[in-house]
Each structure stands twice: as C-alpha cells, then as structure tokens.
C-alpha cells in the first residue's frame, strides 16, 4: 500500500471519531431539529469515512455514492421493523440502525456526504496539478514524482 493510502487509513478513523464526537455533543446540547438532522448528516459523514477507510483510492463520486446508498439502505430497512426490534435491545443498534423510517432523512444523508465529496475532489485535483501521487488527497504526505517517467522518490 502506498504512503497516501496508508495515511488515509489513519485519517479516516480519526475523522469518523470527530464526526461522532460532534454528533454526540449536539445530541447532549439540543433536543430539537438540530439534534435530529445534524445527527443524520453526521451519520452519513461517518459512513463516508468507513468507505474510504476500506478503499482509500476510491474516487470522490463513487465513495460518496456508496456512502449515500448505504445510508438509504439502512433507512429503508427501517420499514421492515427489524432495526426497531434490534434498537429496543441495544443503544449501539439504535445509534447505527435507527428506530423508524423518516423520509426527511433521505435528503439529509446527501447533505452530510456531498460537502465531503466536493472537498475530496478539490484536494485530489490540487494534488494532481502539483504532480503529486494521489490516494484521496487528504493526506498532505503524498509521494513526490522523481521524474516525468512516473517513478516516485522514496
């Protein structure tokens, strides 16, 4: 695995924990719409970090699309009642799977992922312009091309 990919594997869990911490902080401080909708968007942001942790070289649109699709799948699964049953037994299941279907959440998942997709794309484009090797572009520690032949300096 290249240095940028390794760095992404380190950064994504850190980012996921930051999103989780922010969601729990908002949950503790607010009990209204901010709590509901920010939690939904930040959940999607955490899913995005998991997608990139599993595949650090994935393109921005593909990573974001997979994260959103996963979130929608979990939301639609709530129509079956299985997540509600699991959530009644476990706080972790309630946080990961939710309790009941809310069609508004379907719009908030992209709100949590699309800004990350844009950032991901912009950083990758900047690294490419600078001639740097790219994993996802959030590393700051890319391999630098040694020559125009494509070889990289170690």
Overview of this protein structure:
This protein is an all-alpha fold. Helix content is 69%, strand content 0%. The protein is built from six helices and no strands. Helix 2 crosses helix 3 and helix 2 crosses helix 6 (105-129). The two termini are 13 Å apart.
Strand content: under 5%
Please write the string of helix (H) and strand (E) elements.
HHHHHH
Instruction: Report Rg.
Output: 18 Å
Mean pLDDT across all residues, rounded? 86
Distance between the termini: 13 Å
Largest sheet geometry: none
Q: How many H/I helices?
A: 6
Low-confidence stretches: 137-148
Structural class: mainly alpha
What share of the residues lie within helices?
A: 55-70%
Strands, count: 0
Shape: elongated
Summarize the SSE layout with pairings.
Blueprint: H1 3-29, H2 33-54, H3 60-77, H4 82-89, H5 91-97, H6 105-129
Question: Short description, anyone?
Answer:
By secondary structure, the protein is mainly alpha-helical.
Name a few traits of the molecule.
single chain; 154 residues; mainly alpha; 6 helices
